[in-house]
TrEMBL record, chain A:
<feature type="transmembrane region" description="Helical">
    <location>
        <begin position="199"/>
        <end position="219"/>
    </location>
</feature>
<keyword id="KW-0813">Transport</keyword>
<keyword id="KW-0406">Ion transport</keyword>
<dbReference type="GO" id="GO:0008324">
    <property type="term" value="F:monoatomic cation transmembrane transporter activity"/>
</dbReference>
<dbReference type="GO" id="GO:1902600">
    <property type="term" value="P:proton transmembrane transport"/>
</dbReference>
<feature type="compositionally biased region" description="Basic and acidic residues">
    <location>
        <begin position="609"/>
        <end position="621"/>
    </location>
</feature>
<keyword id="KW-1133">Transmembrane helix</keyword>
<keyword id="KW-0472">Membrane</keyword>
<keyword id="KW-0630">Potassium</keyword>
From TrEMBL, chain B:
<feature type="domain" description="Flavodoxin-like fold">
    <location>
        <begin position="8"/>
        <end position="175"/>
    </location>
</feature>
<dbReference type="InterPro" id="IPR046980">
    <property type="entry name" value="KefG/KefF"/>
</dbReference>
<dbReference type="GO" id="GO:0010181">
    <property type="term" value="F:FMN binding"/>
</dbReference>
<dbReference type="InterPro" id="IPR003680">
    <property type="entry name" value="Flavodoxin_fold"/>
</dbReference>
<dbReference type="Pfam" id="PF02525">
    <property type="entry name" value="Flavodoxin_2"/>
</dbReference>
<dbReference type="InterPro" id="IPR029039">
    <property type="entry name" value="Flavoprotein-like_sf"/>
</dbReference>
<protein>
    <submittedName>
        <fullName>Flavodoxin family protein</fullName>
    </submittedName>
</protein>
<dbReference type="GO" id="GO:0009055">
    <property type="term" value="F:electron transfer activity"/>
</dbReference>
<dbReference type="GO" id="GO:0003955">
    <property type="term" value="F:NAD(P)H dehydrogenase (quinone) activity"/>
</dbReference>
Length: 636, 210
């Protein structure tokens, strides 16, 4: 037991130290994990033999990652992006695979190995590139958006690759492996279908894929509803894990890739209201396990080989980058991506990616690529990833300045459409806010912790998600970093205040508009950092009061003016009251001074109301003022 | 005139209820915003509910020497908010009456855009009157409040001719510069239908705006 604790400690400590430093240096977290692995593995030898065992465990992170990739892929979005996705992304994968495979053939590799290598190197690093785009604010440039479609296509392409690569197995390697296996301990995996005839095997596979889709579509939502209504967070997390683990197990049992199964389940659930909640629950597990995976890759790097073959590895890396960048450049020309965006697109995706590691270790397991070749390739993948920040620096400091002039006068996007608004709480209040915004073409993301509420809204096609908006990770998946506004309309007073405090502190750029229950709450929200607040009952009560005045015989236009004067006086006095309230002693916010001020406010409103229009110029508001009687005698 | 002569301060009151559709007025307003001697007020943005803050508006008038009403010509007059502004802000004993001298000696000019062609705004055109004639209520308002009134700065056929817009913007800038340096000679412009005709004779002042 002690041993496990020690090892866990070493892995975690390495990650905790190395990853933040790497991120600070602009290298990204993937490289951070790799560096951590290199340090605890080949450099200090704190860990050694067990990396291979841990790697199996860590590969579950990849399974989860594909589940999350699936969750992101709502079929409607894929359809919208189809041209870029399959045209640009598809061509990139095919052409890069072909060219890299040709190079591998030049090194006298068998065609099957060459093809596998081509597939591995056609992929780029989603993790590094997207993170860098976010950090440097390049996500919404034309180059950034196109790069995103290519990365998405690559992530999708991993699925068929995982299915295809085992068919490339080398007979020699398989035989050698079988020899080893029979002499070593019996290690066969549990497999239900191994001894079935082919037709039954096919049926079993189809049945399980169909099962995942059908059950995912029909059973998962009632299940999540049931669990969500219990209000137990950890059970929801357990359910999410159960889903992923269950599907992975089912797929292994019928001899399919677990990653494929969870990816499918992800796609099935992409339109569900639980998507954000699932994402934020699985995300930390995926992050840690994937991190663990990269650490094991780093720990497995063979420095002896790196030293012996430094020149070959360096040249191969350079070749990979040049080949990939040229393919991307060609495609950019074909798809009319221009100027600095063409450079950004070509340079940002020129490295090999984390899926390269995954496919490499998978290929070795499946006896497709010999271990010695894989070791070298692993170093090439890692080195090309290490060089990515260099390429970005090249782009930023050498290429961007040359195009600065022509990017400056580009028109920016329409206000309403690029801005996204997060609405926390979609009850009686939030719904109206949302309807107004959506009716005007503003993109909103709606969060609510009532599953039934969310479901009702989804029935009338309002984009809404189940989840507790006060949780940072859910806000993160809802896209708070890029949101322009956060509208707080949740039912719980204290949570509303906490939420505002958190968002104002962590994302100071996001404007916060909040609904208050009463005056005291209003002030608390302002103090917490809300930019605009409104009392939920104020304006509707004002409308009703005005209607009453009109009913009593006031002229409707006079009523309107009185109402406005009331509002103005109230607003001015309220600001004064707020200052008073701020000064009030903690815990006793409505101290006697405040009460006195409140009475004063009521008095001044009364005065404003009763003041005749003829009275002089200090009213908060006055309507048209007639000149005094007989004033025309003053003129000649 | 010299480059360090003190400029007169201009108050530009812009009234346009449909700025999304604006093709001439918005560029004019943006241009004016870039000049530090012009205070630019977007009335419809400041008072979207037509509740005009009279005190603030009167203070603005007091603080400036030249007032420009900029608006698209709606039914031979100003958009409704600018009329509301006149109704409320030009109060007895502020703008007129025995103590109403706050505007004495200031200048009022309209800058308007008209969709119809210039030929239509003539005695023999289908609008029968010139823009100057149609704006007579404002001219008289200026007279009653002791302001100096200048003929309007106008663009015609404003929704159909692309090429005259650049020229109009250049003229607009020239006009603002000339107003701020008091280069407009009342005798020369008094009888003009629009002040546009007086602009070619003025020196180009953009280079002086250092």
């Amino acid at each position: 037991m002690t041993e496990y604790f020690l090892q866990a400690f070493i892995y975690l400590a390495a990650a905790v130290i190395a990853v933040p430093i790497a991120k600070k240096l602009g290298l990204g977290s993937v490289l951070g994990y790799l560096i951590a692995g290199v340090i605890i593995g080949p450099v200090t030898h704190l860990v050694g033999q067990e990396t291979a065992t841990i790697q199996h465990f860590a590969e579950f992170g990849v399974v989860m990652m594909l589940f999350l990739v699936g969750l992101e892929l709502a079929p409607s979005m894929l359809w919208q992006m189809r041209n870029r996705l399959f045209g640009l992304g598809g061509l990139q994968v095919v052409i890069s695979t072909g060219l890299v495979a040709c190079i591998a053939l030049l090194f006298e590799q068998p065609w099957s190995v060459a093809l596998a290598i081509g597939l591995i190197f056609s992929l780029s690093s989603t993790a590094i590139v997207l993170q860098t785009f976010n950090e440097k604010g390049l996500s919404n440039t034309e180059g950034g958006r196109n790069a995103f479609s290519v990365l998405l296509m690559q992530d999708i392409a991993v699925i068929p690759m995982l299915a295809f690569i085992p068919m490339l197995a080398l007979p020699d390697l398989v035989a050698a492996a079988e020899g080893l296996q029979s002499s070593a301990e019996h290690h066969e995996q549990l497999n239900l279908v191994a001894h079935l005839p082919t037709w039954a095997y096919a049926i079993a596979i189809l049945a399980s894929i169909g099962g995942v889709i059908v059950l995912g579509h029909f059973l998962s939502r009632p299940l999540f509803h049931y669990v969500a209504s219990s209000g137990l967070r950890e059970i929801f997390v357990a359910t999410a894990l159960l889903l992923v683990v269950g599907i992975a197990a089912l797929m292994s049992l019928v001899g399919l890739s677990p990653a494929l199964g969870t990816f499918l389940a992800g796609v099935v659930l992409a339109n569900s209201e639980f998507r954000h909640e699932l994402e934020s629950n699985i995300e930390p597990f995926k992050g840690l396990l994937l991190g663990l995976f990269f650490i094991t890759v780093g720990a497995g790097i063979n420095f002896e080989i790196l030293a012996n073959q430094a020149l070959v590895i360096g040249l191969l890396t350079l070749a990979v980058i040049v080949v990939k960048a040229s393919v991307l450049w060609g495609l950019a020309v074909m798809f009319r991506i221009k100027n600095s965006n063409r450079w950004l697109f070509s340079l940002s995706l020129a490295q090999a990616g984390e899926f390269g590691f995954v496919l490499l270790s998978f290929s070795v397991q499946q006896h497709v690529i010999p271990t010695d070749v894989a070791t070298i390739l692993q170093l090439v993948v890692a080195l090309s990833m290490f060089l990515t920040p260099v390429l970005f620096i090249l782009f930023e400091h050498v290429i961007m300045p040359r195009y600065q002039a022509d990017t400056s006068n580009q028109s920016y996007d329409d206000i309403g459409h690029s801005a996204s608004v997060i609405i926390a709480g979609i009850g009686r209040f939030g719904q109206i806010v949302n309807r107004l915004l959506v009716a005007n073409g503003v993109k909103t993301v709606v969060l609510d912790h009532e599953a039934s509420q969310v479901e009702n809204l989804r029935k009338i096609e309002i984009q809404s998600y189940f989840g507790d908006a006060t949780r940072p990770d859910l806000l993160h998946t809802a896209g708070i970093e890029n949101a322009k506004l956060l509208i707080v309309a949740i039912d719980n007073r204290e949570q509303a205040i906490e939420l505002i405090k958190y968002v104002k502190h962590t994302y100071p750029k996001v404007k916060i508009l909040a609904r208050a229950f009463d005056k005291g709450h209003n002030y608390e929200l302002l103090q917490a950092g809300a930019d605009y607040t409104v009392n939920e009952t104020y304006f509707s009560a004002l409308e009703l009061g005005a209607e009453a005045m009109t009913e009593l015989g006031f002229h409707p236009f006079e009523t309107e003016q009185k109402k406005y004067a009331f509002c103005q006086t109230e607003a001015a006095a309220s600001n004064q009251l707020y200052q008073q309230w701020l000064g009030g002693s903690e815990g006793q916010k409505f101290d006697p001074n405040y009460r006195k001020l409140f009475m004063q406010m009521e008095e001044s409103i009364k005065q404003a109301m009763q003041r005749d229009r003829m009275d002089k110029h200090d009213g908060a508001e006055r309507g048209w003022t007639p000149p005094p009687k007989n004033y025309e005698k003053g003129f000649d | 005139m010299s480059a360090n002569q003190v400029r007169k301060k201009i108050l530009l009151l812009f009234a346009h209820p449909s700025q999304k559709r604006s093709e001439v007025n918005l560029p004019m307003f943006e241009l004016a915003k870039s000049l530090d001697f012009v205070t630019c007020v977007d009335l419809y943005s400041e008072y979207p509910r037509h509740h005009i803050n009279i005190n603030r508006e009167q203070q603005r008038l007091v603080d400036h020497d030249i007032v420009i009403f900029q608006f698209p010509f709606y039914w031979y007059s100003t958009p409704s908010l600018l009329k509301e502004w006149q109704d409320l802000v030009l109060e007895y004993n502020f703008a007129y009456g025995p103590d109403g001298t706050a505007l004495h000696g200031k200048t009022l000019i309209c800058a308007l855009s008209a969709g119809g062609a210039e030929q239509a705004y003539r005695a023999d055109g289908y609008n029968h009157f010139t823009v100057r004639e149609l704006l007579q209520p404002l001219e008289q308002t200026a007279r009653l409040t002791g302001m100096r009134y200048l003929p309007p700065f106008a663009i015609f056929s404003s929704r159909s001719t692309e090429c005259q817009r650049q020229q109009h913007l250049a003229n607009w800038r020239k006009l603002l510069e000339a107003l701020s340096f008091e280069l407009i000679n009342d005798d020369k412009v008094a009888e003009l239908t629009t002040i546009n005709d007086a602009l070619p004779a003025l020196p180009n002042l953009a280079s002086m705006a250092v």
